[in-house]
Design goal:
Blueprint: E1 16-18, E2 33-42, E3 45-55, E4 60-64, H1 71-77, E5 86-91, E6 94-95, H2 100-107, E7 110-113, H3 125-135, H4 141-154, H5 170-182, E8 188-192, H6 200-213, E9 219-223, H7 227-233, E10 236-241, E11 244-249, H8 251-256, H9 261-270
Parallel strand pairs: 1-3, 4-9, 4-10, 7-8, 8-9
Antiparallel strand pairs: 2-3, 2-5, 5-6, 10-11
Helix pairs in contact: 3-4, 3-5, 4-5, 5-6
């Protein structure tokens, strides 16, 4: 995904390798998703600085940090929604490139849920969920509808299947967005602050769905400010600030005994 020379990795830099219950990938098995010395600029602004992160198959990772720390930029780089100027992103050991066919192939195994739902307002819930199944995977109308209904039931909005998104609450729309992503049977799910646009009473219904998904063995990376969610489902919590990973730890260690002063200052503010 980059044409520029690779940046020199800082001495002593090591990838943060995260797996289920904090374990690394099995020997010989590449991480489900990893970044190596990832660098991203927006003009003169250095948004990501030598970010090394490796998620084992089935890992559940929560990425947190203050606004502007690079969290959303990182999650968007992981499936090629943002280009980067240095380093690499690898999915199952295969590096993302500018080759559109390769990028589309890798993206089929990655589901993405955004802050703003990104549902097509002129399509019903069912049509939103079946569109990619029919156009990308070539499923028949009947087969696609059956798969969509299965996942809509999973996220408890099957009764909304023939409504348009504008008639749904924010929480319902976000659950539809999750169902749409699941329809592609992804191995990896990326969540970019999925509850930040919701009213407080709607946050729990979306988090409950995500907690349920966490038991499925899907590799999950979630940018969120919901610290209770991080405590409950994460294998590891990654804290970012100013474009860098400051600290990575298990939830127990992260919340009770963070090693970095910057992490402690952040937690003092968000846990008040």
């Amino acid at each position: 995904m980059n044409d520029d020379p690779q940046p020199v990795r800082q001495a002593g830099s090591q990838a943060t390798d995260i797996g289920q219950a904090g374990s690394a990938s099995r020997p010989g098995q590449p991480p489900a998703l990893e970044t190596v010395a990832l660098n991203k600029w927006f003009g003169g602004f250095h948004a990501l600085k030598n970010v090394d992160l490796a998620a084992a198959q089935g890992a559940r990772i929560v990425i947190c940090g203050p606004s502007g720390s690079g969290k959303s930029t990182l999650i968007r780089c992981l499936n090629g929604l943002e280009t980067f100027q240095g380093g690499a992103v690898r999915v199952g050991g295969i590096a993302l490139s500018r080759d559109q066919k390769q990028l589309q192939r890798l993206r089929r195994g990655i589901g993405m849920v955004f802050q703003q739902f990104n549902l097509f307002p002129h399509l019903t819930v069912m049509a939103n969920c079946t569109l990619a199944l029919r156009r990308v995977l070539g499923k028949s109308k009947t087969e696609a509808a059956g798969m969509a209904l299965h996942y809509l039931e999973r996220v408890k909005v099957a009764d909304q299947a023939h409504k348009y998104p504008g008639r749904l609450s924010g929480g319902q729309q976000q659950r539809v967005a999750i169902a749409r992503a699941l329809c592609m049977n992804p191995k990896i799910m990326l969540f970019d602050e999925p509850t930040s646009s919701l009213d407080p009473e709607m946050v729990k219904e979306v988090l409950d769905v995500m907690i349920d998904l966490a038991s499925d063995g899907i590799t999950m990376l979630c940018v969120t400010h919901e610290m209770g969610f991080a405590r409950e489902i994460a294998d590891q919590v990654v804290f970012m600030d100013q474009g860098s990973i400051v600290e990575t730890a298990s939830p127990a260690t992260f919340f009770a005994a963070p090693s970095q002063e910057r992490t402690r200052l952040f937690l003092d503010k968000v846990l008040r």
